[in-house]
Task: structure prediction
Amino acid sequence: MIQSEAHAPESRPIAILCAGGALPFAVLHAMRAAGRRSIVVAIEGIADPGLSRFHAHWLALGQLGKLFALLRRERCAGVVLIGAMNRPSVSSMRIDAIGWTYLFDFLRNIRRGDDAMLRGMMRWFEVQGFPVLGVADVAPELVAPKGRIGRIDPPAEAVTAAARGFACLDALSPFDVGQALVAIGERIVAVEGAEGTDALIERVMELRRDGRLPRAGRGGFLLKAAKVGQSLKVDMPVIGPRTVELVASAGLAGVIVEAHRVLLLESQAMISGADEAGLFLFGLEGRGAP
Amino acid sequence: MIQSEAHAPESRPIAILCAGGALPFAVLHAMRAAGRRSIVVAIEGIADPGLSRFHAHWLALGQLGKLFALLRRERCAGVVLIGAMNRPSVSSMRIDAIGWTYLFDFLRNIRRGDDAMLRGMMRWFEVQGFPVLGVADVAPELVAPKGRIGRIDPPAEAVTAAARGFACLDALSPFDVGQALVAIGERIVAVEGAEGTDALIERVMELRRDGRLPRAGRGGFLLKAAKVGQSLKVDMPVIGPRTVELVASAGLAGVIVEAHRVLLLESQAMISGADEAGLFLFGLEGRGAP
Result:
């Protein structure tokens, strides 16, 4: 297949479709630093207004016709869906003519959990000819490596307990629950649901304050992993400096992330935060390879 | 074996070893109403002072020598361990000579989770010749029946979702986590850890308040079950009127309990609370029989 220089796949941009939070910035900074081309699409009312400095195209939820037209016009080679989003209500959408044709599919999927909703959205883009890429494809610098990430090594018992923790998260995966848990000693004390990782750690903090978990002594850790079969292209677990701060406040000894399957947001700030607080920060291959 | 009238097994009392909360009262009231003999042993600093009106013998944690001597003196036919207890600290104990011989076993088990700790304690009594009985043995009136408990029937979708919820709790059982979860629609939104059922429901309340779960409309339910292999003799899940109040506040539509394996505390108050709030309250056989 012969293509002109201008249309060579290498030079075509990737569309970064941005929802809320800081992750879109991290992805865009990493892409710029590596000289990778991007087109920024920001979701009105959800994405950070600061994205305007990346020349973002602002679109409302439901404006799928406009979005697909933009992606075609810019000859995008693919699309990355990134950032935090609460389950949107239909009333917050501005559904265009094309958008309406996807609404039924959307409403059916949303009832089945986050994974189903995101997989459904991925299919929409792929059918339109825009493969969905993951953060790991466009900004591999953000992905948790294997082994020690900070300066401090985890104790052997934490690594052993993490293996049991992975097994627990594996068992939960079919139910679309749980990307994280907190273990103290050999005991799993809290499992993440819809509340998210910050609230999970805060719960452990409260249990310690109330004396329902031993107050004295540091110990235990946050385990953060992807769900088995989770679509890492559109929903990769993330930790950042705030995670490490909360872990320190909860009197835990560190964080173990699933290597290659968790994103590290502002990793320099996070690592120095962990080092200063005396916490370990470690990437462990969770499934398959030990 | 020939026994005098006075020593006939039927006439020997059951020792009710009481930790905190209202459940010991419910058990003692049910036993009295049914004319079953009991000896009440209350744990100092943990059991409700009101137990004194049942002529309780007050003992501190760790006074195992005194306890076993009492059980022998009263010719107890068995012992029931009942009531709520945080994991005790060794410093709160008054360990007697016999107690010391159990301390190592206790400390080893406590690290392995609640089930291991309770199973260990059961063995202590059994080795001393006092079989451990469950609430179901001495107060079967408190056990959740199968089928509709209140006035309102659950919708068919809730019963279907409960089956999936049981499967999720089954998957968690090997990890000694989770006697309860909250499902909304087909989605499991929160799984219970060390925080307990009340805090689990309060979490759902907060998620709704923050808009992280749909605010509008009632729906969803609390599922409360025993863990697979959980020792129902010493650690049966309990719900009560407070559970129903919280479920109502969280905008859920009802409660499904595992029939035969969950205790209903103050069931009359709970049932009328559910009826008045328009909540269903239903016993479903969770494992095996549908």
